[in-house]
Amino acid sequence: IGTAYKLSKGMTEFYITPMMEQRGEGEVFCDFDKGNSKKVLIRLRIVSTSKAVIIGTIYSNPEEYVHDDTDIEQLDSMLRIILGYVSRVRLISRLEEFGFSDLDGYRNFRAFARFMDINNAENRLGGKVAFHIDLHNFTIVNQEIGRENGDVVMRKYYDLISDTIGETGIIIRLGGDKFIGIFDKGLQEDVFRIFSGAHIAYDVTGQQRVNVSVAAGIYALPIPYMMKSYGDIMDKIMLAGNVAKRHDGERIVVYDDKMKSESDHIKQIQTAFPGAVKREEFIIHYQPKVDIETKKIVGAEALCRWQIDGKLIPPDDFIPILELNTFVSELDFYVLDHVCRDMVRWLNEGRQ
Length: 352
Known about the structure:
Layout: E1 9-15, H1 18-23, E2 27-33, E3 39-47, E4 53-60, H2 69-100, H3 109-121, E5 129-135, H4 138-145, H5 147-165, E6 170-175, E7 178-183, H6 188-196, E8 198-201, E9 209-212, E10 214-220, H7 230-246, E11 252-254, H8 257-278, E12 282-290, E13 297-308, E14 311-313, H9 319-322, H10 327-348
Parallel strand pairs: 10-11
Antiparallel strand pairs: 1-2, 1-4, 3-4, 5-7, 5-10, 6-7, 8-9, 12-13, 13-14
Helix pairs in contact: 4-5
């Protein structure tokens, strides 16, 4: 077209929204340029039904050729056809990006599901290693270096893992600083080394660095392995990940069947707790505090026990579980309330 109509330059612009057009956040293509453009011959701006903006601009050099009305009319029609085609192609590409990426450009769960479905259909999941990671103390990192730098660090850490995993695996962001993924077992040593800690630079000189580590839940898929649901893998890596977050030492925890029984026990205690409070199944035992000189009782420590059908459940069996959420605070107030009741009763009975 440029040669046939003696045009000097052609430009195409694509913006997802009019707002992005105003900010200049889009794609600009130089279709051809003879280096002698002097005048804008036609500038055509089209807004699609999805509000994407596509702009086409063609230039001429009146010193070489003057376009008449027929030329302008024909060029306008052809430019509309070209922009319509470009718009559809770019929108399809953008829909692919939006469908499998979040707003920050990280691959999302749809991308993970697609990867798993393809590999499952080709029987290539067996022997791979799935993971759930939670960046360690990343809120503090944001406070120390600023959220903008924190975003840079998170992206670089994500890219480091993604590059290490390669095309045979995938990492996606669930949200915030939580990620899941899967990789070939042969890469385990390299990936675990990154999980244990990596120094990530966040300035242009590479001098300013922060160490990033994670709490990681790991599930090694057996051989052979056929996935029945995403939940089968998700439940295991998230359970192991929760154990890693609570662990004071090792922050890479591999799932085993024992965790399933522990998880069932946790769910059982958490489910039973609200009803136990209403039925006042928690009873208070008092351990006296004795003055060693006068041998007199000067106070007491209130100890909580859970009594079900006459059987006492020791605190080690339920307190750590209640500490996983706000249930332990409810138990604190329950104990305080019952201690105050006992103190009033003792005073009414004439006791100290």
